[in-house]
């Protein structure tokens, strides 16, 4: 039976932050499921930087079907969870089903990969207090408010938690996450 990995996301997630780990983990031999508030075709976005803008811009991205609704997820079936960024975490952090899912991964000390604005979700379950993390740099104050020590670097590993700033840091993020994952939940 393959080792299962869960990706939790929703509309307005950053396309690359969902699809890169989805494909990379499948390439490693893991079975990957995407969960969202409901089973539907999700609409992702593309964030990029353009001259003259003080922040990133947002454009329509790929669409992708959710395999499961959060209410259908049995966290015990999954060895790890991936928390992508984009705008999705801003509203998903209010979902009680998702908060239960994420809390169960931290309670069981299972590997968690978070990127960009994804740490808004793990902060919502009080899982960052006392940890070292990175995130999209504009979230530094949010991370400190959640009790974390913020580091502005490509990837930060704190036990089973692996965090990264944004999609340009994918190689470092997945390299570190796969190191943790292979040790705790090798492909079977």
From TrEMBL:
Domain DJ-1/PfpI span(s) in chain numbering: 5-178
PANTHER family given in the database record: DJ-1 PROTEIN, DJ-1_THIJ_PFPI FAMILY PROTEIN
Recorded superkingdom: Bacteria
Protein's name according to its UniProt entry: DJ-1/PfpI family protein
PROSITE patterns linked to this entry: PEPTIDASE_C56_PFPI
Record family assignment: Belongs to the peptidase C56 family.
SUPFAM superfamilies in alphabetical order: Class I glutamine amidotransferase-like
One Pfam family, short name: DJ-1_PfpI
């Amino acid at each position: 039976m393959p080792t299962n990995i869960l990706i939790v996301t929703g509309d307005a997630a950053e396309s690359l932050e969902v699809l890169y780990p989805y494909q990379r983990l499948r390439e490693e031999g893991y079975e990957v499921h995407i969960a969202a508030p409901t089973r539907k075709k999700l609409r992702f976005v593309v964030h990029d930087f353009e001259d003259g803008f003080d922040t990133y811009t947002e454009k329509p991205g790929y669409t992708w079907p959710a395999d499961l609704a959060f209410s259908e997820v049995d966290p015990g079936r999954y060895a790890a969870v991936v928390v992508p960024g984009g705008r999705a975490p801003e509203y998903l952090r209010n979902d009680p089903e998702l908060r239960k899912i994420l809390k169960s991964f931290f309670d069981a000390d299972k590997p968690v990969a978070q990127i960009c604005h994804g740490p808004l979700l793990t902060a919502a379950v009080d899982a960052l207090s006392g940890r070292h993390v990175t995130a999209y740099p504009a979230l530094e104050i949010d991370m400190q408010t959640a009790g974390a020590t913020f580091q502005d670097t490509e990837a930060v590993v704190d036990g089973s938690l692996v965090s990264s700033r944004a999609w340009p840091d994918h190689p470092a993020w997945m390299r570190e996450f796969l190191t943790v994952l292979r040790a705790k939940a090798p492909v079977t």
